């Protein structure tokens, strides 16, 4: 079972990110701190998150634009201050964008924009929060690896699976598929690089979910509630043997 003291979610003002925060704080033994980050906490798109944070003391809304290195650094500084010497247990790199495209219509500008958000973002965020994650691992008395101790969860997509090229019929989404394939490689690199720090690293496919992004591709079968509920259960079950894997919301292995 997931039993984290502190967790940070990127892109937490809507969709899967918002539901992650909602379900984390709704747990009977929820985290002490949930750092709910989004790019514009003062804007109208953060109103649902603000309403949620108003009900739970442990939720801290912080600005973080994952495509802006200085914004990432500023968030890391604030989280470090909040934690007062303690580590961060769980980092969920959730924020991402998708731009509809085909092989014919794809452009270098869009490819670069999506790569920056979906790949460089999680890389820089992980880099910035790595000292806190390592600290959480060092200060824990738990044996082995787990998401409750210290972990990076990269929210990926089976759309980036080279083996299945999930639902090509629904849309080509060249920028998105390529970015998620690269995020999967980043996950493997992090798995190798952060193993000695005791930080578990996984890529997570949340399913095809009814969010702004999911619904832009058609009739998504999964509610955000069902996807996130199952995904949190899955995260709670991950151990050392799952380190460096690509799993779906139910915990099944997804082919790279
Ligand atoms: P949504 O489009 O509903 O939400 C995306 C979130 O990411 C928003 O909160 C958005 O913030 C945020 N975001 C985008 N760019 C940035 C940025 N530069 N800095 C900070 N936040 C940013 O998507 P979902 O909730 O559906 O997707 C969440 C994750 O799940 C993504 O990684 C996605 O690829 C993955 N996924 C989703 C699937 C689905 O079917 N829905 C399927 C497979 C994977 P803002 O409001 O400011 O735009």
Automatic annotation (TrEMBL):
InterPro entries: Fungal_SecMetab_SDRs (IPR051468), NAD(P)-bd_dom_sf (IPR036291), SDR_fam (IPR002347). SUPFAM superfamilies: NAD(P)-binding Rossmann-fold domains. Pfam families: adh_short (PF00106). PANTHER family: C-FACTOR-RELATED, SHORT-CHAIN DEHYDROGENASE/REDUCTASE. This is C-factor-like. The lineage of its organism: Eukaryota, Metazoa, Chordata, Craniata, Vertebrata.
């Amino acid at each position: 079972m997931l039993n984290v003291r502190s967790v940070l979610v990127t892109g937490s003002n809507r969709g899967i990110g918002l539901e992650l925060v909602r379900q984390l704080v709704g747990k009977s033994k929820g985290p002490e701190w949930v750092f709910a980050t989004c790019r514009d906490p003062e804007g109208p798109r953060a109103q649902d998150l603000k309403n949620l944070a108003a009900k739970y003391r442990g939720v801290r809304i912080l600005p973080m634009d994952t495509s802006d290195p200085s914004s990432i650094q500023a968030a890391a500084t604030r989280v470090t201050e909040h934690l007062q010497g303690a580590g961060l247990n769980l980092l969920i790199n959730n924020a991402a964008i998708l731009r509809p495209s085909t092989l014919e219509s794809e452009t270098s500008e869009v490819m670069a924009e999506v790569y920056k958000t979906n790949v460089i973002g999680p890389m820089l965020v992980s880099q910035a929060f790595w000292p806190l994650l390592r600290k959480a691992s060092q200060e824990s008395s738990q044996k082995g690896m787990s998401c409750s101790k210290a972990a990076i969860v990269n929210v990926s997509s089976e759309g980036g699976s080279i083996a299945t090229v999930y639902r090509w019929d629904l849309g080509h989404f060249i920028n998105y598929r390529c970015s998620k394939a690269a995020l999967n490689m980043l996950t493997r690199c992090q798995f190798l690089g952060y193993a000695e720090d005791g930080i578990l690293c996984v890529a997570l496919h949340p399913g095809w979910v009814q969010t702004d992004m999911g619904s832009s591709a058609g009739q998504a079968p999964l509610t955000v509630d069902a996807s996130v509920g199952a995904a949190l259960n899955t995260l709670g079950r991950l151990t050392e043997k799952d380190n460096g894997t690509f799993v779906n919301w139910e915990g099944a292995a997804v082919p790279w």
